[in-house]
Amino acid sequence: ALGTKTFYELTGSYKKNTLRSVLFDDPFDPRYVHPDSLNTGAFQFISAGTDLNRFNRSTESWIAKLDVTSQVTKRHQVKFGVEFKRDRVFMEDITLVPAEDENGQQIQPFRPVIRPPSQSTHDRLIRRPNTFAAYIQDKIEYESLIINVGFRFDLFDPNGRVPVDLTDPNIYNPFKLQNIFHDLDGDGVISLEEQTDANRLTVAEREKFWYRSASLKTQLSPRLGVAYPITDRGVIHFSFGIFRQIPDYEQLYRGDELKITSAAGIQGGKTGSGFGNPDLKPQRTTMYELGLQQQLTDNIGADLTIYYRDIRDWVSTGQPIQAALAGVAYGRRINRDFANVLGFTVAVNRRFANHFSFGLDYTFQVADGTNSTPEEEFFAEQGGAEPTRQLTPLDWDQRHSLNASLFVGASDWGLSLIERLNTGQPYTPQITTFGRTGRNIIGGLEKNSRRKPTRFTIDLTGFKSFRFNNYHIKFFAKIFNLLDSKNPLNVFGDTGEADFTFTQRQAISADPTFFLRPDFYSEPRRIQLGVNVGL
C-alpha cells in the first residue's frame, strides 16, 4: 500500500509449455521402416509402416506486471498499470528420409537420416518476441450513473525477419543468378564466366542483404462502459472497446524462412498449408454491447444483452506469390480477412432458495466472414478457386443456442440437470458424380450454404454427503449425455449425413470400415462414479 487510498500489486512469473512427438527416442532406431510401406490404395487404411516425423516445440515466457489503484476522490477511482512479456519460441519439425550414397541412390536396407535445416524436410527455429502493454482507467461513480473510461496501449515486437525479395525467398536455394553468384565486374549481369562453383555466394554472404526486420506493431485502444439504473431493480449497461489479438506464433513463424523448392505448383511449406509471416499485424476487434438487467422478483432476475463485433486483419492466406522460377508459386499468411458477429442473449435465473434454483438462456447469433481459417483459403487457391470476395457463414456460426439448468437439493444432497440444444453449424455441400473414368467432385457450390443437424444433450449429476466419525464423505455420480443421443458433429458433404456417403456405393475395393466415422459424432453416454473423503 502507498497510503490509505492507494495500493499496488507487482507480480512476476515464468512458465514453460512443451510438446514433443516422436515414435522412437533414437532417430536412427533400426525399427524405422521405409516410407513406401505407408502407401495404400484408394479408400484403404494404412496397415503398415512407421511415423517418420519428429516434432518438438517449447515456449518459455517471462512476465512482469505492475498494477496501481487509487481512490483519488469520492467519485474517481483511477487504475493504471504496465505489463512486459518476453517469450522464447523453439520449434523443430523433422521428417526422416532414406539415406543415399554418393550417387544419390538409396542405401539398402533402409537407414533413416536427418537432413540439415537448410532442407525442406527439416524446420528449426528460435524466435524471441516481446510484448508490452500499458493502460489507464477511471471509474466515475455518481448516485445514478457509473462510467468506466480508459485507454490501453499495446506494442508487439516479433523479432522476426522477412525476405526482401519475395519472388526469390529461399536463402539456401535461390533462383536468381545475382543471388547465387558474385557479380565480379559489377555490371549487374551474371555472365557465363561468373557462373562457377568457386564464385558462389555463401549463406553468410547472402545474410547481409537477404532480409529486413519485421516492423513493430502498436495500437491505442479506447474502452468505455456505462451503467445507468432506470429503476431500483433495473440497470441499462453499454460498453464499447477496441481489442487486439496477436496471431498465434504458428502463423507468425512456422515456415517463415520460405524454403520453397523448384517443384511446380503452389507450395505450402512443410505443413503443406502455407508459410508463416512474422510481419503479420494483430487481429483488431471492435466490440459494442447494450444490455438490460432486471430483477423480476426477490429471487428471479433477467438479463438481455445485444452485441456486435467487427473483426479486422483476420489472418488469411494471400494470393499465390509467383517465384522467379517459372511454374513455382507459394502461399503465405497475410492480414486480409474480416468477420462480423451480431447477436443477442436472453437469460432468466433463479438463485438458490427453498431447495431449488434454475437458469435458462437463449442466444441468437450470426457470424459471417470471408474465411474461417487461413488454411481454408490456401487449399481453395491450391485447387484453382478464386480468392473469397464475399461474406459467408463461418464454420462456427451457430444461429440458435438454448441452455437450461435445474438444481434441487440441500446442504447434504443435490441433483443437477443441464440441457443444451444447439442448431447445426454450416458445411459446404458437394455433388459427386461417377463415370467410367472414376469419381468427379463438382465444385463451385456456395460455401457453408447447408447446415448440419441440430444437437441435443442432457447431463445429470448428483451427490450425497454425510459425516462418519471425524470424516466428511461425499458420494457423487455424473452422467454425461444421459439419453445417449447420437449427435452428429460433422457430415459428408454429398449427403449431409454422418453415416453415409454416395462414394461408398462406388468404391468396390474399399475397406468395409473405411467410411465408418465415429469421429463425426459426439461421445456416447459416459458415467462417472466417485467418492471424496476429507476431514
List keywords for this structure.
50% strand, 4 helices, 29 strands, Maltoporin, Chain A, 18-stranded antiparallel β-sheet
- List the quaternary state of the chains: single chain
According to CATH, the fold-level topology of the largest domain is: Maltoporin, Chain A
Quick check: average pLDDT?
Answer: 92
Percentage of residues in DSSP E strands:
over 45%
| Helix-strand makeup class | mainly beta
Poorly predicted regions are 435-439
Note the gap between the termini: 37 Å
Helix content: under 10%
Total helical elements:
4
* CATH architecture label name of the largest domain: Beta Barrel
Radius of gyration: 30 Å
CATH structural class of the largest domain: Mainly Beta
Describe the structure.
The chain is mainly beta. It folds into 4 domains: 104 residues, no CATH class; 53 residues, no CATH class; 180 residues, TonB-dependent receptor, beta-barrel domain (Maltoporin, Chain A); 129 residues, no CATH class. The protein is built from 4 helices and 29 strands. The strands form 6 sheets. It has an 18-stranded antiparallel beta sheet that branches. Strand 21 and strand 22 form a beta hairpin. The longest helix has 9 residues. It is globular, with a radius of gyration of 30 Å. It starts with 5 loop residues before the first strand and ends with a strand.
Characterize this entry briefly:
By secondary structure, this protein is mainly beta. Helices cover 5% and strands 50% of the residues.
